Amino acid sequence: MDTQLYDTVIVGGGPAGLNGALYLGRSRRRVLLIDSGDARNMAAGVMHNVLTNDGATIADFRARSRAQLGAYDVTFRDDEVVSAERDGDQVVVTTKESGTFRARTLLYAAGVRSVLPPVPGLADLWGTTVLECPYCHAWEVRERSFAVYGGSVPSECLAATLTVWSDTLTYLTDRRELPQDERDRLTAAGVPVVTDGVSEVKPHPEGVEVRFEDGRSASYGALFLHLDIEPRVAPLRPWLQAPDLESVQTDERGRTSLPRLYVAGDLGRNMQQAAMAAASGGLAGMAINADLIREDRPGSLPEPPPPSPAP
Questions:
Q1: Which domains does the chain have, with CATH numbers?
Q2: What is the pLDDT of residues 149-208, one digit of tens each?
Q3: Name one GO molecular function term (predicted).
Q4: Lesser CB count within 10 Å: N end or C end of the chain?
């Protein structure tokens, strides 16, 4: 068992967790960062829209970030967190292999898990020719023909957005009848609709082959879709009673209604982009440092604003 008392344990080693560690390390805080290595965007292999790192591999970005953090009091553990709970004025974090750790605060940046529709072949192409974010991936497949799959998650707004990168789009759906407002938006964007249902997705020299329930098939340069997501908050049960951390976040600096618990990255508000996630980690790092100063030296800093009312 590690007997050190850390100022902060950070769960998650993506842009949010790493930038939070940087802010806290440079604030002379003792930090432990625990990362399972199971990043949401690992299938894509690269990251975009981060200045000086546009197109960098995720593995290289993480390795360089850790090397830079070596100048500060930041310790790394490659492990999986199985539980985290408050114990008085401390937080107790238990991992699968490395044991138990104690800290004054917890920055939870474990992210979310993308949930792919149960279409055969889809998972094999995820991150290469089956994509979600136009700002992250559409440039690499620009001017090809696109299919947009509106399965259980309607994606007509995604289709309209993608018209910037391609003049040839087709909207695929398993629903025989679309709501009128959804169909109207697709018509306004000039995107035709195919309602024959998708039965399988396969690799194709041009990108991806889609097979329909009636036996037909068509090829496209790429297939885009919106996904359901699952927040990775199981280790916080039963401390966290809410379904996610966004619903208990009380300000833009990652504070939550649960004392000593902070959130950054994909689990927070509107942060599901690498650059924004990194920014949220920095904001949370500043909030943690300020709150620890208040705890150690009452009255030295003004109190943060009161929590926002529950939605």
A1: 5-114+229-296 (3.50.50.60), 117-225 (3.50.50.60)
A2: 987 677 899 999 999 999 999 999 988 888 899 999 999 999 999 999 999 999 999 999
A3: thioredoxin-disulfide reductase (NADPH) activity
A4: C
